[in-house]
Amino acid sequence: MAPVLNRALTPTSISSIPYSPLFSSRSNTQNRLSLTSAFLHQNGLKVNNFSCSGLKWKLGKRGGCVVVKCEASAVAEKEATESSGETYEYQAEVSRLMNLIVHSLYSHKEIFLRELVSNASDALDKLRFLSVTDPSLLGDAGELEIRIKPDPEKGTITISDTGIGMTREELIDCLGTIAQSGTSKFLSALKENKDLGSDNSLIGQFGVGFYSAFLVAEKVTVSTKSPKSDKQYIWEASAESSSYVIKEETDPEKQLRRGTEITLYLKDDDKYEFTEPSRVQGLVKNYSQFVSFPIYTWQEKSRTVEVEEEEEPKEGEETPPEGEKKKKKTKTEKYWDWELANETKPIWMRNPKEVEKDQYNEFYKKTFNEFLDPLAYTHFTTEGEVEFRSVIYIPGMAPMNNEDVVNPKTKNIRLYVKRVFISDDFDGELFPRYLSFVKGVVDSNDLPLNVSREILQESRIVRIMRKRLVRKTFDMIQELADSENKEDYRKFWENFGKFVKLGCIEDTGNHKRITPLLRFFSSKSEDELISLDQYIDNMDEKQNAIYYIATDSLKSAKSAPFLEKLVQKNIEVLYLVEPIDEVAIQNLQTYKEKKFVDVSKEDLELGDTDEVKERENQQEYIHLCDWMKQQLGDKVAKVQISNRLSSSPCVLVSGKFGWSANMERLMKAQTLGDTSTLEFMRGRRIMEVNPDHPIIKDLNAACKNAPESSEAKRAVDLLYETALISSGFTPDSPAELGGKIYEMMAVALGGKWGRVEESEADSSEPNVDPTSESTGETEVVEPSEVRTESDPWST
């Protein structure tokens, strides 16, 4: 019987068995393969375990046979050892990495000041937090503050703080290791030690903000003194170098009591801009206005002082005695001093119940450089998936240029992260275009920013913020509309009403919030705007639609022939007089289950119609309608009896699915409009006639008695042209229309007031002898010779 292998050997295991001449096939009766010499130890079966070719083998007996076992774990370990490779660490060219960090992360050079001030604020925050448990860290090094001093002569700018400072080891760890955030490590330590709590006011996250200094500096020097160390150290590096130097400060005059002083040796291209004191102060006010520690900048100031005026004595005058008081004069002198740059406090961090209205107004004026108080404001905090605080305002006046209002890139919303300004350029991400007039600040501690802290990264988070901001804005506007002071909402509507209407077009998801805010004039309220809720409250119970007419002015809306029957029936009609009104209403379609109906379109249903009289009119004037349609041809789709006229003879209405006269006028006026689509979208025109009007009755008689009369045909043509104008359309040929009107006027007015024809005037002149010569002299008649028959003075 052949030897038994307890585990099927893999090809690798089999190939590891060494060749031996003892592996031989001996011919015997059983044709056995002899493996004994190859596997058995020299001591035979005395050794149960042994290694061969790196594998562990185990021998045993079973009956009269030798059993050979190969341990599976040994095979797996052998295979893993052979398949594993060597481990290497990533290598980086430091100078190139620094170049990428500096020039690829930040879009503006001025960001460096924001980053360095934020680092200084973090250092002060750390010291304040640690001093709670160890007050000795504060010592007598002065107040917690930040100072910025530009030096135009040396081309440097110095940012100093009285914060925690750094030891030599911390310099190496924080500044010598790229993307190593000391603030992040500090926060991690706080979270691990739950007894100490945590401080979310720390700003740093990524550990690369310090290197933004190389955006404008060719060399950076950091001098720092930690209260934990007796020595002060200097860290120095150049922009193009891949190394840095740390040394101990030995100059007594440069010793710091505590904190850090960063000096930037500016590049030639940036020396002028960032050593200008007013420019530096402007950057601080923009980016770090609401940092919780005072920031002082070195500024040039002026003051008025009194000086003694020295006058030289004139000839012949004696020199005044020394004790006599000299005349004094005032002069203005300039001097340099520290000036607080962040006076305004972050009002959104306070409890709304503790802030007065005047404080909100003052904050609005300072932050957005406004001179008028806001119409309304709201201060709120949201919690949940995204937590942020915000104060938003409705300005007191719209911008002079309307394009600035509907521009999604307006810089009206300022985003802060932990009170540090991040961005105001969102391209409609936080507010829709139609609400871009809203101004305000948004501050959050945990927004997902990119490394440069300039761009919001997660679109889902932005959508949640946008939804909540828009909802709060509508609540604020609705509160303004419901307030007792109607004058405030009237001002709001005058300034921003058309942009709320734009929301009806662009934001279908918020129609329920937008529609109650709309205001229009109406046939019953020509002097005061009314809401759609007021319109519905004034409706008759049987009225099931909201009627409107769109025109170019309030005056033309009042005199439109479409309203005659509705006004007679006491049905209120909304006047849409702004270009955007009609499109906005068409996008709404309904409000509180009431449809919006355009009274200038066909199939107007007013209810309470006299069916008997309507049937009689149809029978009486059916031939007139066909005859007029034949005369007008393709100008109208059809001619029919009207149920909307009472005093006008006729009117032109638009098809149900085509443009109205007002919309057609607007589309023709578009600068970049496509005239080829006008005919397609214009829709059909339907002429409706008033059967009770004398002109229509006369034309009906002409249709029956003299259908071929040229005068009747001219009357129909002129009637159509007149209806075209009164219905709001533009005639194709105004000059031709004018000629027809002049012709009709000539017929109507001919000889009415005894006009003298030219032929009659010629016949009434006396005959003049053509042979008589004109002397060319004028005969002068003396007044005394003039006599009339009725002259009482004549004798």
Automatic annotation (TrEMBL):
Bias-annotated ranges (Acidic residues): 307-321
A GO molecular-function descriptor: ATP binding
Region (Disordered): 304-328, 756-795
Biased composition (Basic and acidic residues): 784-795
GO cellular-component term (any): cytoplasm
Pfam family, one: HSP90
TM region positions: none
Keyword ATP-binding: yes
Keywords of this entry: ATP-binding, Chaperone, Nucleotide-binding, Stress response, Transit peptide
Histidine kinase/HSP90-like ATPase domain span: 108-270
PANTHER family in the cross-refs: HEAT SHOCK PROTEIN 90 FAMILY MEMBER
Protein name per the record: Histidine kinase/HSP90-like ATPase domain-containing protein
Lineage of producing organism: Eukaryota, Viridiplantae, Streptophyta, Embryophyta, Tracheophyta
